[in-house]
Every structure is written in C-alpha cells, then in structure tokens.
Amino acid sequence: MADPDPKRQLEDLDARLSALKAAQKSEKAHQEEHYSQAQVAWRMVTEMVAGLGIGFGIGYGLDYAFGTTPFLMVLFTLLGVAAGINVMLRTAKEVQATQMGAQAARDKTGGPDGGEHEGK
C-alpha cells in the first residue's frame, strides 16, 4: 500500500522529478551540440555560395555595362570565391575558439571529459 506520510511522498516525488530532469538535460545537451555543428556547416556553405553569387553578379553587371565579354565576370567570380573562403576560415577559427573555451571550462570544473588523454 501507499506510505501514509505525505511529506515523505512529496520528497520521493521530488527526487524522481529531479532525476528525470537531469536525464532530459543531458540528452538535450547532446542534441544541441549536434544541431549547432550542423548549423555551423550550413553557415559555411551559405557564406561560400553568397560570395560566389555576389562576385558573379557584380562581374556580370560590370561586363554588361562596359561591354567586355566574360573578363570581369570571371575575375569577380574568383574574387567572390576567395572572399567566401576567407569568411569560412574566419568562422572555423571562431568555432574552434569557442570549443577550446568550452573544453577549458570542462577541465576547470572537472567535467566528464575533463582530464588529459594520451594517444597511443
């Protein structure tokens, strides 16, 4: 039968709820990390395509305005690709710095991945 003490029942319920919330929080943290990596990948792809498209558009417009055939279009498309790669590298450095900061915080707090790993 049930425990007649309501205070003890509330404490048991609180303990079970806390355990359930902790389990959900750890699952959610893993999912957020996965989605953030996918978002970073799409961000890089978008930056690359945007640089390419903007360079192509500027080059095509200038070629049309000046009457040059494909010269400026090719030039500005290559400059757009270079700008896209530059922005992608900057994003990669930003993500790497964020991950390094998170790793340092885990090491400082003694998280599950805290500690040195030896590769053999």
TrEMBL record:
This protein's record includes keyword Kinase: no
Any one GO CC term of the record: proton-transporting ATP synthase complex
Domain of life: Bacteria
Annotated Basic and acidic residues bias: 105-120
GO biological process: proton transmembrane transport
Alphabetical keyword list: Hydrogen ion transport, Ion transport, Membrane, Transmembrane, Transmembrane helix, Transport
Sequence intervals crossing the membrane: 40-62, 68-89
Glycoprotein recorded as keyword: no
Parts forming coiled coils: none
Chain residue ranges for the region called Disordered: 97-120
Purpose: A possible function for this protein is to guide the assembly of the membrane sector of the ATPase enzyme complex.
Similarity annotation: Belongs to the bacterial AtpI family.
Protein name listed in UniProt: ATP synthase protein I
Organism: Ponticoccus litoralis
Lineage start: Bacteria, Pseudomonadati, Pseudomonadota, Alphaproteobacteria, Rhodobacterales
